[in-house]
Design a protein that fits this description.
448 residues, alpha/beta, GMP Synthetase, Chain A, domain 3, eleven-stranded mixed β-sheet, four-stranded mixed β-sheet, 12 helices, 35% helix, 23% strand
Length: 448
C-alpha cells in the first residue's frame, strides 16, 4: 500500500504541485537521486561546469560581484575549476548585508522571496531565494531524509520552527503524511502529546532539530515509552554525543544527521556506513575548509566552512563564509558506494537549552526564530546560570530601538514562558565571540 501511495505521490501529486507552485522539486529530486551514484570524475566535471556558469552569471548580472572582482583585478575566465576558487575573495554576511538587496540580487524567471535567517549562527541575515534555488534545496531535503531509510510516502513526525504552515505547506504535510509539531514547546505535557502522536499513528520516522528530539527521547525514557522507530533525521544544531546516545538507545534506530543553511544550501548528510562523516552534495555545492588566513587546511583538521552554491539563483553565494567550522574527511571512501566528497565533522554550532519556570526547554532555534527578523541586531548571546532567569547580550546596529527590544522580549515571554525573567544589555561584542567554539545559547544551569 505504501509503495502504491509513494508511486502516486512521485509520479502525479508532487509533480502537479510543482506546476501549481512554479517549482521543480521532483525533477531535481530525480536528478540528485541519480547523481549521488556518479563516479568522482563525472561529479567533478559537472561541478566545474556549474561553477563556471554561476560565476559568469554573478559577474554579468550582480553589481556586488562585478565590483568586488573588478576591484581585485580578477579575470573570471581564469576560474575554470574548484581548484581555482582561491583566486576569488571570500564573501561574508556583513558584506552582503551592506549591498542587500539592490547590489547583490538579480532578476530571474522564477518567483522569489526574501528569507530572514540566522540558523544557529546568532547573526540575523536576509537572503533572496527564487523558486528554482528553493527547488534544489527541497529536492535534497527529500534525498537526505532517504539516507535514514525513509521513503517518500512514509509517515513521520517533524519538529519545526512555526506551526503557522500556510496553505501550500499544509498541503505538503498532508500528502507527505507529516505530523508537524513545535520544536520550541518542549514541556512534559507537549512531549507526551508528541509521543502519543507517534504511537497512535504508528510512525516509524522522526525528523527535526536534535535538541527537541533529544528531550523527546528523555521524556520517552521517563514514561516508559517502548515504541521503536526505523530512523531519526536531524538538522540545524550539533548532535552531541549524549543526544545521539539517548535518541538511539530510546528509539532503537540510527540518527542520520544532516547539514545545511537557511540561505538555500543543503550541504551534506550522514549515511549508515560513513562512521559519522557527511557526504557532500557535490552537484549542488562546493565546500572549502580554510584557516584564519583563508588558506586550505589539511584534511582532517578543523577550519572555517566556505560554500559556493552551484546555481546563481536570485542571490548568488560564491565563496560564502557561512560562519560554521568543520573538517574535510581524510578519505572519501565509503561502503555505501557514493563517490561524494565528505566532511568528517561539523563543529561550531554548539548550544544548550534555557529552562523556563514552567519547565519548557528553549533551544537555540527558539531564539534565532525571533532574532532573525530584527536586522537592527548584529549578533546576540543568551546565557542562563540560574533557574527562571536568562541574560541576553545584544550587539546592536545604529538603527536598533527600544521598540525592537520590547517586541523581542514580548515574543520570548509569549512563546516561551511568561514567568521567565529576562535581563538584557547592549554590548559592543557578545560573549560568544570570545569562545573557542561558537555558542549562542549557553547554560551553566543545565549541564545535560
Amino acid at each position: 500500500m505504501t509503495s502504491i501511495y509513494a508511486a502516486l505521490l512521485t509520479r502525479l501529486v508532487l509533480p502537479a504541485g510543482d506546476i501549481v507552485t512554479r517549482q521543480s522539486v521532483m525533477r531535481l529530486y530525480k536528478f540528485y537521486s541519480e547523481s549521488q551514484w556518479w563516479n568522482r570524475e563525472r561529479l567533478i566535471e559537472y561541478q566545474n561546469a556549474r561553477l563556471r556558469e554561476t560565476i559568469r552569471t554573478a559577474y554579468q548580472e550582480v553589481p556586488f560581484y562585478r565590483k568586488l572582482y573588478d576591484k581585485k583585478g580578477i579575470n573570471i575566465n581564469n576560474v575554470h575549476t574548484s581548484r581555482n576558487l582561491e583566486l576569488l575573495p571570500l564573501v561574508t554576511k556583513g558584506a552582503l548585508k551592506l549591498g542587500y538587496p539592490t547590489q547583490c540580487t538579480r532578476k530571474t524567471d522564477w518567483p522569489s522571496s526574501d528569507f530572514f535567517t540566522s540558523g544557529s549562527s546568532g547573526q540575523p541575515f536576509a537572503v533572496r531565494v527564487d523558486n528554482l534555488s528553493m527547488s534544489h534545496a527541497r529536492a535534497i531535503m527529500l534525498l537526505r531524509a532517504s539516507f535514514s531509510g525513509w521513503h517518500i510516502g512514509e509517515a513521520s513526525l517533524q519538529t519545526g520552527m512555526s506551526l503557522k504552515r500556510g496553505a501550500v505547506r499544509s498541503l505538503k504535510d498532508f500528502f507527505l503524511r507529516v505530523s508537524y509539531v513545535s520544536a520550541f514547546d518542549l514541556s512534559d505535557a507537549q512531549l507526551d502529546a508528541y509521543l502519543d502522536i507517534i504511537r497512535t499513528k504508528r510512525l516509524k520516522y522522526v525528523m527535526g532539530y536534535p535538541g527537541s528530539i533529544y528531550y523527546l527521547a528523555k521524556r520517552a525514557q521517563q514514561v516508559g515509552f517502548d515504541w521503536l522507530l526505523d530512523g531519526v533525521v536531524t538538522w540545524g544544531d550539533n548532535v552531541y554525543s549524549h543526544y545521539r546516545q539517548a535518541i538511539e538507545a530510546t528509539f532503537g534506530c540510527r540518527v542520520t544527521d544532516t547539514y545545511g543553511c537557511g540561505e538555500g544550501i543543503q550541504v551534506a548528510a550522514q549515511c549508515g556506513h560513513s562512521n559519522g562523516a557527511y557526504h557532500i552534495f557535490m552537484p549542488h555545492v562546493i565546500v572549502e575548509v580554510l584557516d584564519d588566513n583563508g588558506a586550505p587546511v589539511k584534511r582532517g583538521n578543523s577550519g572555517h566552512i566556505v560554500l559556493t552554491r552551484l546555481d546563481p539563483g536570485a542571490m548568488p553565494l560564491i565563496r560564502y563564509k557561512v560562519g560554521d567550522m568543520g573538517a574535510l574527511s581524510a578519505t572519501d571512501d565509503c561502503a555505501c558506494g557514493r563517490a561524494l566528497e565528505m566532511l568528517s565533522s561539523i563543529d561550531g554550532r554548539d548550544t544548550d537549552a534555557v529552562i523556563t519556570p514552567s519547565g519548557n526547554r528553549l533551544i537555540v532555534h527558539f531564539f534565532t526564530g525571533i532574532f532573525e527578523y530584527y536586522p537592527s541586531i548584529e549578533n546576540f548571546f543568551v546565557f542562563q546560570n540560574k533557574s527562571g532567569v536568562v541574560f541576553i547580550e545584544i550587539a546592536a546596529r545604529p538603527d536598533f530601538s527600544i521598540n525592537d527590544w520590547e517586541n523581542i522580549k514580548r515574543e520570548i515571554l509569549e512563546k516561551g514562558d511568561r514567568d521567565l525573567r529576562i535581563e538584557m544589555k547592549i554590548v559592543k561584542q557578545t560573549s560568544n565571540e570570545r569562545f573557542g567554539k561558537r555558542r549562542f545559547v549557553l547554560s551553566e544551569y543545565l549541564k545535560n
